[in-house]
Amino acid sequence: MTTRVTTGGQVLPITRWGTPVMHGRTRPVTEFDETLQSLVDDMFATMYAAEGVGLAATQVGVDLAVFVFDCPDDDQVRHSGVVCNPVVELPEGKERHLETIDEGCLSLPGAYIELARPDFAVCRGQDALGEPVEVQGTGLLARCLQHETDHLNGTVFGDRLSGRARKKLYALHQDLADCYPDDWPVSPRSAELDDED
Ligand code: NI
Description:
The chain has 197 residues and is an alpha+beta fold. The protein is 25% helix and 25% strand. It has one domain (20-182): Peptide Deformylase (Alpha-Beta Complex), CATH 3.90.45. Nickel (II) ion binds next to helix 2.
């Protein structure tokens, strides 16, 4: 990938589920300019501060179709980059294998629950300079590409759960909610929780 991955961005508060920007379709990226690069820098800084593997623009309150990722694949090889205007292609028929593992979201911090998703995904879009980009993902990266593209279509992974599973997920989050300040990860998680990790 030719994507320029820079550091030095500003850590921003992560938007939570229930905030309108998280539940609507985003605007396509049409200007691949300094403003976009600055947003991408801030998104990387925020993702790393939160120790996440992916972050969508809606998670920093911006309704623009771009996500960043830094995520291991099935061989534990890390892949990082930017995808603007992502479209995910999933295997069909015999090629389609579902994997059920715990999934979480930085916008509902602390809670994880099992969700079945295809174990392979191809994500196509543009990088931060507007050049075509294609990311092929296995393992956690396959899940990440699907999860982040969902975000930009206004879908959170809770929308893909049964009512019962969603209720359990919210209960898990509620148990830990006090440990995440409103502006997390600008302010860190509370220390008591870290001791329990
Ligand atoms: Ni998420």
